[in-house]
Amino acid sequence: MINLLHQLKKRRMELGLKQNDMLLRIGVSRQQYQRLESKGNPRLATLELIANGLNSEIMLIPKEKRSAVLAALEECAIDEQNPDSQCLDNTESQPKKKKSLSDDPWQGLLGDSS
């Protein structure tokens, strides 16, 4: 659970949001959000609400595929600095060369041909 809470905090900070900002994004006060981020045990519905407020998705990743998923995410993070990146999201005006991870997070990792 600590890893998940750390990920929530990291994502919030990546977006440049303060705990106060979560009130407008998901309807949770700063005090409630601070408690949740530091030592909370949120319900699944609360996690989904927070993920949505942080422009994120909750996923279950099979342990045996974790390193491949992390490597793919790192590759896209590096590619974001490259204008010819193959990891463009749906908001980009350039055509995608391959599906983004948000469209198909498992692309090829599970042995399928897509």
Task: Explain this structure.
By secondary structure, the protein is mostly helical. It folds into 2 domains: 2-53, 434 Repressor (Amino-terminal Domain) (Orthogonal Bundle); 61-114, no CATH class. It contains 5 helices and no strands. Helix 1 (2-14) packs across helix 3. The protein is globular and about 40 Å long. The model is unreliable at 90-97 (pLDDT under 50).
Secondary structure: number of strands: 0
Mean pLDDT: 79
Overall tally of domains: 2
Please state the overall shape, judged from the principal axes of the Cα atoms: globular
- Sheet-strand content, in percent, reads under 5%
Q: Oligomer, anyone?
A: single chain
Feature tags:
114 residues; mainly alpha; 434 Repressor (Amino-terminal Domain)
Short overview:
The protein is built from 5 helices and no strands.
Helices and strands in order, then pairings?
Blueprint: H1 2-14, H2 22-26, H3 30-39, H4 44-53, H5 66-79
Helix pairs in contact: 1-3
